[in-house]
Design brief:
single chain, mainly alpha, Arc Repressor Mutant, subunit A, 2 domains, 14 helices, 61% helix, Helix-turn-helix domain-containing protein, HTH_AraC-typ_CS
Length: 343
């Protein structure tokens, strides 16, 4: 997701250079983001497949072959003289500016295929979007649900983000049919900005950083220096936390959060976080993972646990994602859930 946002930002940056005219002052950047068109769809696909629990492999690199091939072909343009890049920018933006006459021969597009990059991009994205939708529908069917009516948190999130990328594709098709060359891309950029804003808002809204009282100017060692908690108060909070984890099995909820735990024991999130950090030498999420994996280990060794799928075990201890469960399990036990069960 991070790489995808970076790629989209770079494409938008080139658009900004074109629309402001600054591209004529930085001709060496002309069309620098064009090969990135063939990175967007694979990144979306790999991100969504990882969220569905698919393991990464060396074969994933094959998805970027179109990018590598187009980048190699674009090198012929990148090494052209500035006069050709100047004239190309005028044509791309449909500017009413005279071209520079030159007797030199242009060799930046020997096959004459660069004019079809937008069409190739649309086809490339549509293929991947179709494949992603197929896997989402398939995953929902395994749960006996429709992807449009699923109650699974992960599938709902993936479906909703899929809608955004589908909308971008539709806007892309509309822009390329309606406008000439790269004019009209600002409509795509506006929607991408909206998506990045939503992503940033979601990250800030769920970040534990914003539940802390300390200032961002304070160093890590000062985190709890001004805490008003006494040692006996810490003992009480720790006892309540452990009761929630051990007896109430707070951790099995897939939506378990520090704020929910704090509400359950009627304490502030800052104080609960402090006690977990100081007394258990763990973060809240490390504590959550410890209990979830212990529970999973107990399940995997039962007769029922040997019949359940890894996904079902993961869900029973609070994980929505098989990949997240596998990562946490291996980090704590140095084994995968399957290896642990087979011992």
């Amino acid at each position: 997701m991070g790489i995808l946002i970076l790629v989209l930002s770079l494409i938008m940056f080139e658009g900004w250079l074109n629309y402001t005219g600054y591209i004529f002052k930085t001709l060496w950047l002309t069309n620098f983001s064009e090969p990135l068109n063939f990175v967007i769809a694979p990144l979306i696909y790999l991100f969504k497949m990882s969220q569905l629990g698919n393991k990464r492999s060396k074969k994933d690199g094959f998805h970027f072959i179109p990018f590598v091939l187009w980048f190699g072909y674009c090198l012929l343009f990148f090494f052209q003289e500035d006069v050709f890049k100047y004239n190309d920018s005028i044509g791309v933006m449909n500017l009413d500016i005279p071209y520079i006459e030159t007797a030199k021969v242009y060799t930046g597009d020997p096959l004459g295929i660069r004019n079809y990059v937008n069409l190739a991009t649309i086809i490339h994205i549509l293929i991947y979007i179709t494949v992603v939708m197929y896997h989402l529908i398939k995953s929902a069917k395994k749960r006996g649900e429709s992807i449009f009516m699923t109650t699974d948190k992960t599938l709902k999130s993936l479906r909703n983000s899929f809608y955004h990328f589908l909308i971008i594709t539709l806007i892309l098709i509309f822009v390329k049919i309606t406008f000439k060359s790269d004019v009209g891309d600002y409509l795509i950029f506006l929607y991408i900005c909206f998506m990045i804003f939503l992503t940033g808002f979601q990250m800030m809204n769920t970040s534990l950083y914003y539940t802390e009282v300390s200032s961002f100017l304070e160093g890590p060692v000062l985190k709890y220096k001004k805490s008003s908690l006494l040692e006996d108060q810490k003992d009480v909070i720790l006892k309540r936390v452990m009761n929630q984890m051990t007896h109430e099995k707070f951790y099995v909820s897939s939506s378990a959060s520090l704020s929910d735990l704090s509400k359950a024991i009627k304490e502030s999130s800052h104080h609960v976080s402090q006690v977990i950090n100081e007394r258990l030498n763990q973060t809240f999420f490390e504590l959550l993972a410890t209990y979830r994996i212990d529970e999973a280990k107990a399940i995997l060794k039962t007769d029922l646990g040997k019949k359940l799928t890894i996904e079902e075990v993961a869900e029973s201890v609070g994980y929505n994602s098989k990949s997240a469960f596998n990562s946490a399990f291996k980090k704590i036990t140095s084994q995968t859930p399957s290896q642990f069960r087979d011992l």
